[in-house]
Amino acid sequence: MEYSLAFMIVLFLIGFVGSFISGMVGIGGSIVKYPMLLYIPPLLGLSAFTAHEVAGISAVQVLFATIGGVWAYRKGGYLNKDLIIYMGISILIGSFIGGFGSRFMSDDGVNLVYGLLATIAAIMMFVPKKQIDDIPFDQVTFNKWLAASLAFVTGIGAGIVGAAGAFILVPIMLLVLKIPTRMTIASSLAITFISSIGSTAGKLLTGQVLFVPAIIMIVASLIASPLGANTGKRINTKILQGILAVLILGTAVKIWLDFF
Question: What's the pTM value of the predicted model, to 2 decimals?
């Protein structure tokens, strides 16, 4: 694969935009960057990535994008440690299984899993949430084993597509576990970081990572993710939920259109 200056600039911009959004709405950014990496380079006449290559680049990039976001949210009581431990351990195991097992799947199979995950997330994001943001952070409770089980299943699917699963975790935490929006955004970034360790390990062990594009995306992530997180703190939670819902829905529609 040729790495021209134009190609590297496009990769950096994709990484920057995706990471800014990831920090702002509490996702690892793959929901945005997966389709951007898949469709934008060939649209501009540049080299095209396969679905496996996109998944590998995304997995490594998310690992670094979430570090910046978690650092920005480390103060203010936004991080729920119990939630991070129970969901983090489960999703780490699931994402490694998915990341390692994806080597046996076709490109269409990887895209199909991505489309299914995005569709489920989009449906969940448009279901009304009842007064979850009125709960004080120190009074938040949740079903630990339900959280762990859902995180494990999410991890398998997310590991396959090189995501860390936050675009599924966020609606699960908001809708099923009833976690307040800002706590969901901050805690999901921490859980996503743990998940990305598993999916990255699985992709690296099976040779699915292109290192030059991954490094460019990492640099963009480290710059943009904290900027997005700091911006997200100042935006109304309903607007953040709306942004995420629209992004997920648009991605799901695009993936399904390519199948039919």
Answer: 0.71
